[in-house]
């Protein structure tokens, strides 16, 4: 018997014995008793620390839409280098085929 097959057989026997021991273990009487007392479960609401956001005021949605359009859409607004941002939507020229920038 080779060393590898001996190790495989030993590992299989060990796992089998461990599984058999776990299967054969009898649960205690307290686990089987539906009226047994248990520790209370703690409850904390997910909203216990919630605070409503404080808005400074409503912005004109038309002006907001124009601003996003002027910077080149939502992707233009999140560019970190403002020198690369187009000033008008017409200034943004898509890469070859329109998909060349994917994965960069």
Blueprint (SSEs and pairs):
Blueprint: H1 3-24, H2 29-32, H3 61-70, H4 74-77
Protein architecture, described:
The protein is an all-alpha fold and about 100 residues long. The chain contains four helices and no strands. The chain is flat and about 70 Å long. The model has no long low-confidence stretch (mean pLDDT about 75).
Features:
104 residues; 4 helices
The major sheet is characterized as: none
Q: Using only CA atoms, what is the Rg?
A: 33 Å
Overall pLDDT: 75
How many E-type strands?
0
Low-confidence stretches: none
Tally of helical segments: 4
Q: N-to-C SSE series?
A: HHHH
Estimate the strand proportion.
under 5%
**Fraction in helix:** 25-40%
Distance between the termini: 54 Å
Outline, from the CA principal axes? flat
Oligomer: single chain
User: In terms of structural class, how would the helical and strand content be classed?
Assistant: mainly alpha
Summarize, please.
The protein has 104 residues and is mostly helical. Helix content is 38%, strand content 0%.
């Amino acid at each position: 018997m080779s060393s590898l097959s001996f190790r495989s057989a030993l590992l299989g026997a060990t796992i089998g014995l461990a599984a058999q021991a776990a299967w054969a273990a009898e649960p205690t009487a307290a686990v089987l008793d539906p009226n047994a007392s248990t520790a209370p479960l703690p409850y904390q609401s997910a909203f216990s620390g919630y605070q409503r956001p404080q808005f400074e005021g409503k912005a004109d949605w038309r002006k907001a839409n124009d601003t996003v359009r002027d910077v080149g859409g939502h992707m233009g607004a999140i560019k970190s280098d403002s020198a690369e941002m187009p000033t008008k939507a017409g200034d943004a020229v898509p890469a070859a085929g329109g998909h060349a920038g994917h994965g960069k």
